[in-house]
Design the sequence.
């Protein structure tokens, strides 16, 4: 009996010991929420590593509040909306968390934003592009990335004017992000005189899209536009090519990932177009140092790393400006920051928290890499 | 492409998927028929088969010499994957189900779900959470009949499945082990009294069922070229539906059920709506349970008193 009683005590001691570090220095935590497991883990990791790098550098440069040490608290929302809400509640309940970088997927960012609003804490999403999120009237919400009402149409304009596409088929994954993006593409495509042959949906996590592809093959579209993320995107293009559907393939930032090329294989992914928030990072001088530092620490830089990095830097500068560990003061400081120069460009928030300076680029897969083509119009 | 071509193309692709479902469904149905147990970790063994196949391929690809080597390489990968999955199946049976042989029927169901989580997370930790690229083990050739096309890979999957199912039939109908399995399925108590080693036969059933699931997992990886640690969940559920459709406990029923589910799913997604693709399989499950709970080939069992 005695031994049984001792067991929880030992566990408790181990847990307390695990909280570690120097218990005397008070801590300020920066939350990072993204899918860190599952099929979208790659983009989530890219993002949170960017955050970690920014926080570590800010601390090194004395960019912070004296007397505090900083810690990034990364949480996995599994790109699942209900898990995202749990993560948000965890952050809100932790009095040391002074702001959150996240979430990644629009379907997660949207329900979580209500919880951050209730807790009065800053939320900066580096990646969620659905336009409706910022229309909820939450003053705690900020967004670094562009929105789909700009991204979708810019893809449609590029397809119509530069690629000379006449007919297009839309496929989306029925998520807030995927469907929102495809819907915005469709609206602009119709304005540009493209004929939209059909608009179909698939399910995230599914593997076999051949029934749908066989159905659309006789329609012989010039282009298939996919609103969704790379695991399904890669399978779609593989299966389309295997059924000898030659249509051009285009998508949004969800497929603009090295993992898309790896899963589809470079030969099959060749010639795929993607719109992606941001510009060619290799042409921004400030980004060079970031890429060096990142690659020294984590390996090849992903497209999303820079957004996590910029979002975290914005939060760190607001923290410094506020000078106190107080969620309300930090929010005020961020609200009153006119603009911020990051490695993805100048970031200035409008009253809804959206980035006024939305820079979008067209990318194309070429010999196994995602090459920057030109700025999107 | 004419409407008829489209129809045949849907059937061909549905058949391929159906064969893979059937490979998993066999394990469900055998284990249920012999041990009266629904092994919900079976889908995970299928998933492990895909990962094991990939690992074995990466380990031995260096030894293969050119196209001639493929003839040895691919069967070798199949054999090792099936052996590995058999061992895993036996281990699961010994640790999670055997101690519960006399427990209420809900208990092994719960441990099955536990094993399922354990295997999923173990694979996630070992191989990482992301989709893994599964390379083509053989160069893909395409055959066309008019507008209808299929690949050599689809033929190999069908041929391998037929060979394995033929072997299974041989084992069940013409060996002592098979005889013991049939006896156990008929009446476990009587079989025990006749001196049949019940525990050993149950383990053998798990071994055979897991080997089939492992081969199915390997086919799945070869066919879709990406694998993920949670692939076993949905595929397992659909195979379970196939087993129920064919009549759980009935081996030819699992084959027919698997193929029917694959084809109906393809036709449903192709002609009705691809958004509802996963709904069709489970809609069939509900219909079967309502109107023919014993399944297509099952016979209604009179409750023994």
Sequence:
């Amino acid at each position: 009996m005695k031994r049984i009683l001792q067991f929880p005590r030992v566990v408790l001691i181990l847990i307390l010991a695990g909280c570690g570090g120097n218990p005397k220095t008070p801590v300020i935590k920066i939350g990072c929420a993204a899918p860190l497991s599952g099929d979208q883990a790659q983009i989530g990791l890219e993002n949170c590593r960017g955050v970690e790098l920014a926080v570590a550098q800010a601390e090194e440069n004395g960019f912070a509040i004296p007397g505090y040490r900083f810690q990034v608290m990364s949480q996995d929302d599994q790109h699942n909306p209900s898990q995202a809400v749990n993560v948000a509640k965890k952050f809100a309940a932790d009095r040391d968390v002074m702001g959150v970088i996240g979430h990644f997927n629009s379907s997660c960012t949207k329900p979580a934003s209500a919880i951050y609003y209730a807790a009065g804490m800053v939320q900066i999403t580096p990646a969620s592009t659905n336009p409706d999120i910022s229309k909820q009237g939450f003053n705690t919400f900020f967004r670094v990335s562009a929105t789909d009402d700009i991204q979708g149409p810019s893809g449609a304009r590029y397809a119509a004017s530069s690629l000379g596409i006449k007919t297009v088929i839309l496929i989306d994954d029925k998520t807030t992000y995927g469907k929102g993006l495809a819907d915005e593409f469709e609206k602009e495509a119709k304005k540009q005189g493209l004929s939209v042959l059909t608009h179909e949906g698939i399910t995230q996590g599914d593997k076999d899209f051949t029934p749908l592809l066989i159905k659309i093959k006789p329609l012989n579209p010039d282009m298939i536009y996919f609103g969704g993320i790379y695991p399904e995107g890669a399978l779609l293009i593989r299966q389309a090519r295997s059924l000898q559907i030659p249509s051009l393939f285009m998508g949004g930032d969800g497929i603009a990932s090295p993992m898309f090329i790896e899963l589809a294989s470079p030969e099959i992914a060749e010639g795929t177009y993607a719109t992606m928030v941001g510009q060619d990072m290799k042409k921004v001088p400030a980004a060079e140092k970031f890429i060096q530092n990142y690659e020294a620490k984590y390996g090849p830089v992903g497209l999303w790393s820079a957004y996590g990095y910029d979002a975290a830097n914005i939060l760190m500068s607001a923290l410094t400006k506020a000078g106190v560990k107080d969620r309300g003061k930090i929010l005020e400081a961020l609200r009153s920051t006119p603009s911020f120069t990051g490695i993805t460009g100048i970031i200035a928030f409008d009253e809804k928290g959206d980035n006024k300076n939305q820079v979008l680029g067209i990318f194309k897969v070429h010999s196994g890499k995602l090459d920057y083509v030109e700025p999107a119009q | 492409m004419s409407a008829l071509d489209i129809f045949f193309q849907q059937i061909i692709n549905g058949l391929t998927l159906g064969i893979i479902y059937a490979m998993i469904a066999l394990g469900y149905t055998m284990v249920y028929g012999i041990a009266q147990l629904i092994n919900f970790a079976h889908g995970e063994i299928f998933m492990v088969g895909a990962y094991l196949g990939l690992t074995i391929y990466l380990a031995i690809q260096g030894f293969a010499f050119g196209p001639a080597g493929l003839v040895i390489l691919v069967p070798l990968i199949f054999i090792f994957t099936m052996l590995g999955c058999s061992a895993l199946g036996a281990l699961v049976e010994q640790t999670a189900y055997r101690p519960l042989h006399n427990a209420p029927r809900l208990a092994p169901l719960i441990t099955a779900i536990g094993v399922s989580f354990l295997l999923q997370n173990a694979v996630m930790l070992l191989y990482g959470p992301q989709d893994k690229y599964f390379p083509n083990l053989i160069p893909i050739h395409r055959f066309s009949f008019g507008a209808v096309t299929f690949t050599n890979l689809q033929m190999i999957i069908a041929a391998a499945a037929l060979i394995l199912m033929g072997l299974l039939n041989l084992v069940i109908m013409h060996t002592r082990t098979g005889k013991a399995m049939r006896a156990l399925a008929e009446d476990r108590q009587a079989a025990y009294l006749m001196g049949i080693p019940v525990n050993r036969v149950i383990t053998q059933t798990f071994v055979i069922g897991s080997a089939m699931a492992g081969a199915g997992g390997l086919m799945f990886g070869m066919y879709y070229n990406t694998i993920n640690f949670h692939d076993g969940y949905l595929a397992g559920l659909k195979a379970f539906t196939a087993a129920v459709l064919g009549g759980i406990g009935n081996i030819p029923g699992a084959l027919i059920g698997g193929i029917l589910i694959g084809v109906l799913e393809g036709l449903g997604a192709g002609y009705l709506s691809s958004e509802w693709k996963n709904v069709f399989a489970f809609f069939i499950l509900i219909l079967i349970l309502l109107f023919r709970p014993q399944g297509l080939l099952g016979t209604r069992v009179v409750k023994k008193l």
Observations:
- Strands of chain B lie at 132-133, 142-145, 148-151, 226-227.
- Residues 18 and 132 of chain B are 23 Å apart (CA to CA).
- The interface with chain A takes residues 1, 6, 9-10, 13-14, 17, 124, 128-131, 133, 140, 142, 149, 151, 220, 224-226, 228, 230-231, 234, 265-271, 273-275, 277-278 of chain B (CB under 8 Å).
- Chain B has one domain: 3-291.
